[in-house]
Write a structure and sequence with these properties.
alpha/beta, 2 domains, 16% strand, two-stranded antiparallel sheet, 12 helices, 287 residues, single chain, 44% helix, TIM Barrel
């Protein structure tokens, strides 16, 4: 499993819900996102672009990575969003590109923002049948693309599938594999049953086991559980330290740690985990 502090969780706030901006930043999400797409009706798109500028200017914006989801680049609203974002006095840390179906979508977004947003990074949302089939191309777009996101609802509706884990297992696996092959992060889609924390715990655990870096939240109440699921606990970190120590002692030769045979893939994965979360105390012997 891979863990990162970059994108364990993402919380979306409609651009028209200005009163929720600061709460989003303070929610504990790794990424606080203002949404210009699905949550904004067509008649309020221009107003939403204007309002969203304040999302990045608030002092509380420094508490999380601040992001904006633009509209699809297949239509004019997405390009209008990018032109507006480029003029914001405080630039977003991230731009989410919905309905991504080729590397060109990422290149268009980067080109439109140009020198106005030199440090802004991108997440591409894979949520169409074409996007899922072209996931390797999108994930390998390069530049400032930091990861891909699975959009379950649009994809399921497009192919006529249900929203169960089993029905979408192929698409999820393809997203993760493409992301890891390209060396970028992968985020899972949200669980839409807001109050069902047991279901969230189950699905987030499956997403972590599959290789996702994090999961989207649709309500702040989901964030503590999501962050916990995608953060290594002390027992896992302690075992990783023991594996790293064993690798040093054996010169990375195959050995046994805690009754489990480990070799180079285990040493590398454990080293990355220790590097990300710190060496901590000396590893203790397994009970």
């Amino acid at each position: 499993m891979k863990y990162t502090r970059y994108c364990r969780s993402l919380l979306s706030t409609p651009a028209t819900a200005v009163e929720r901006y600061a709460k989003s930043h303070q929610s504990g999400a790794d990424i606080a996102m203002v949404d210009l797409e699905d949550s904004v009706p067509p008649t309020r798109k221009e107003e939403a672009r204007r309002l969203a500028e304040e999302f990045f200017a608030l002092p509380s914006a420094k508490l999380a990575r601040s992001a904006v989801r633009i509209n699809s680049l297949a239509g004019p609203e997405g390009l209008r969003d990018l032109l507006a974002v480029g003029r914001y006095r405080v630039k977003p840390d991230l731009v989410l590109i919905p309905m991504a179906e080729s590397a060109r979508d990422v290149q268009i977004a980067a080109g439109a923002l140009g020198a106005d947003c030199p440090d802004t990074e991108f997440l591409a949302v894979l949520e169409t049948p074409v996007g899922i089939e072209r996931a390797p191309e999108v994930a390998a777009a390069g530049g400032r693309l930091r990861g891909v996101v699975f959009g379950s609802a649009d994809y399921a509706f497009a192919v006529g599938a249900g929203l169960s884990w089993e029905a979408l297992a192929y698409a999820r696996a393809r997203v993760v594999c493409a992301a890891r092959a390209a060396g970028v992060e992968a985020m899972d889609s949200p669980l839409f049953e807001v109050a069902d924390l047991a279901a969230l715990r189950h699905e987030a655990g499956l997403a972590r086991e599959l290789g996702f870096s994090g999961k989207i939240a649709i309500h702040p109440s989901q964030l503590p559980l999501i962050n916990q699921t995608f953060t290594p606990d002390e027992a896992l970190l302690d075992r990783a330290r023991r594996v790293v120590a064993a690798g040093r002692e054996t010169g990375c030769a195959v050995t046994v740690v805690d009754g489990v045979m480990v070799g180079m893939p285990f040493f590398e994965a454990s080293r990355r985990l220790v590097d990300e979360y710190g060496p901590g105390p000396e590893p203790t012997a397994a009970p």
